[in-house]
Amino acid sequence: MPAPPASFPALAALLALLLASASGTDVHDIGEAQFTYEGPQGPSHWGDLSPKFAACARGQHQSPVNIVRNATVANKNLKALTRDYRPANATLVNNGFNIGVVYEEEVGMLLVDGKNYSFKQMHWHSPSEHHIDGIQFPAELHLVHKASDGNFAVVAILYRLGDPDPLISKIKGQLDQLAKEACGADEEAHIPLGIFNPKQIKRNTRKYYRYVGSLTTPPCTENVTWNVLGKVRSISKEQVASLKAPLAADDKTNFRPLQPLNGRQVQLYDELGNQ
């Protein structure tokens, strides 16, 4: 990776801290054990890589899951998701196992069942981690929020192939630049985005699926309220390729396999039915 400017170490440390607090993990090597999406350090082995990753193998409320629409339970007590974001300085990051946008200051919150979760970061998986009726989609975006008690709420957006996604179109130049950064397995690459407006992410939440699960990367902690939006958006083949290009060969297909529900219910919020 090209030599960074003198101020870069402090920025890199800050970004690593933000990633750790936002995703529940440290960087790609988690400070002690590397993981990948293929091979001997792939998902089926995550639980063996470190005692801290035990939940990846033995947890009973793991993510992602297959959402069977006819098996969901309509819950009239659920409320529309309230997201209040504002523009802030952001950085595009290749953290080794996915491409994400990290915010360097407070950018707003998500209100879930009367509880505030601060918006920390967003990142992509390709293909999707969650399935709907057994269908896996070309990409999935996770908007990660964290509450003061350490629990997470994630809004997941699924994408089908079609027209380009406007948000990714806005950062195409930075994605291309990120792909040119040559990083080792224990390194990150960072591209400043300047002032980035999260409101560019469409906020339609007329329908979503809710269940309690886990982080989908080690340590697979089971403290996540998942909200998978019912509206599937579109992404182009070229944009999917741009999200994969900066990643190492073992991480270009960066989805965790489906996990069993183990008796959990997937609840449905539908604006028309919850009025």
Model description:
This protein is α+β, with helices and mostly antiparallel strands. It has one domain (8-270): Carbonic Anhydrase II, CATH 3.10.200.10. The chain has six helices and 16 strands. It has helices at residues 8-23, 46-49, 55-58, 166-170, 172-179, 237-244; strands at 66-67, 73-74, 82-85, 88-94, 99-103, 108-112, 115-125, 131-132, 135-136, 139-146, 152-161, 189-196, 207-213, 224-229, 233-235, 267-270. Strands 2, 3, 4, 5, 6, 7, 10, 11, 12, 13, 14, 15 and 16 form a 13-stranded mixed sheet that branches. A hairpin with a 4-residue loop joins strand 4 and strand 5 (99-103).
Summarize the structure.
Helices cover about 15% and strands about 30% of the residues. The chain contains 6 helices and 16 strands.
Topology:
Elements: H1 8-23, H2 46-49, H3 55-58, E1 66-67, E2 73-74, E3 82-85, E4 88-94, E5 99-103, E6 108-112, E7 115-125, E8 131-132, E9 135-136, E10 139-146, E11 152-161, H4 166-170, H5 172-179, E12 189-196, E13 207-213, E14 224-229, E15 233-235, H6 237-244, E16 267-270
Parallel strand pairs: 1-8, 2-16, 11-14, 11-15
Antiparallel strand pairs: 3-6, 4-5, 4-12, 5-7, 6-7, 7-10, 8-9, 10-11, 13-14, 13-16
Unreliable segments of 5+ consecutive residues? 1-31
Number of distinct beta strands = 16
Strand content: 25-35%
CATH topology: Carbonic Anhydrase II
Q: Please tell me the overall pLDDT.
A: 87
Secondary structure class reads alpha+beta
| Spatial gap, N to C terminus | 54 Å
Instruction: Supply the CATH architecture.
Output: Roll
The name of the CATH superfamily reads: Alpha carbonic anhydrase
The CATH class designation is: Alpha Beta
Question: Can you summarize the main beta sheet?
Answer: 13 strands, mixed
Indicate the percent of residues in helices.
Answer: 10-25%
Number of domains: 1
Shape: globular
Give the helix tally.
6
